[in-house]
Amino acid sequence: MNHVFTNVSIFDGSGSPPFPGELRVEGNRITEVVRSPAQVSRDAAVVIDGGAGVLMPGLVEAHAHLTWPTSVEKFVPGMYLPPEELALTAARNARILLDHGFTSAYSAGSLSKKLEISLNEHLVSGGLPGPRLIPSSVEREPPNETALDPGHVAEHARGAEGMREFVKECAEIGAKAVKFLISGESALKPGASLELLYSEDELMAAGEQARLSGVWLTGHAHAAQAVKLGVKAGFRVLYHCTYADDEAIEMLASHKDEIFVAPTIGIVQATLDASPPPHFDMSNMKADAAIVLERQKALVPKLRARGVKLLPGGDYGFPFNPNGRNAWDLELWVRHLGYSPAEALHAATALGGELMGMGHELGQLRSGFLADLLLVAGDPTEDVRVLQDKRNLKAIMKDGAFHKTPGAAS
Ligand SMILES: [Zn+2]
Fold first, then answer.
1. How far is the CA of 300 from the centre of ligand 1 (A)?
2. Which domain holds residue 203?
3. With CB atoms 3.0 to 4.6 Å apart as the test, which of 136, 145, 187, 318 could cross-link to 285 if both were Cys?
4. Across residues 125-131, what is the average pLDDT?
């Protein structure tokens, strides 16, 4: 079916201000975008009056954890769920992200080896609602006694050979991304963010195998050395980068065409804001988050000035940072990182399309691009917070089909 959107302001994802215009969708592609008073062809199309709302590209979450259990619809204390429940929860979280305007998601790791891969088959076939997904295998750190993540379901052997085996296996079962904790996490174990968890040999072997097997590597990297080794090993995405020093910043800058950085500010602010029950001590986490926030506020402008591609995405899915609240990240980018709303939206749409490996056809409202779009009541380029209330999303279209039809009850 063809669709025409009229009486809308179009934010095309480039970062330029919205302009009054019209947009036509044929099948799953945008075929015309014009500025008023020009009109698009209405031939064989359903015409949708946008009610003077803003039409914009669907959002991209750069650090998605669909298997992290908590969402805005369901609080889950802790991280562990039995496998059956984990599968249903992940499917539900996929729908929740799409309900909140996220038409794409890049996985930052799963709690199960194969779950996101089979979930993605259902998402692609149209059997379940959810975003376009880069599915990941289980998030990995080296086997150890005080494991930082609750995955524990797929260990790998140490050494270059162990890494090659693991990456190869993930690729063979259908993962598109493989996540490693290159350095630890101080929020969970004081001081761990500065500890390297893998050797240079291991990381280089993982990188080599990833290129051979055609998968992307995704890294949790706080320590400066973790960032440097991540760049050197050819990781596609590096999260956090908190302690990046001048040399690490230069390395990121010299690979700016092939690497993406997501500071994950959402989890940091959520940690600072959380008021946990008395039996749950978050004092270490909060002390660490305060340091991380200050460092990110200093780091992000430096990376940005050097042209490094930075993306919103905030590690949602923890009990105090639920899946579905992902658009909150944009507010934090404006509040803490020196972005205007339109700049934050550009990062979450156009750069998001590039992160998904589809920059030539995803993340912007341009003729020939895939029809992933949102009709918003209110102007997110004036105030990004309008995107946090899903009732303001009057229509959600993914791949040319409405997930939320205009006029449907919120
Ligand atoms: Zn994460």
1. 18
2. 59-326
3. 187
4. 95
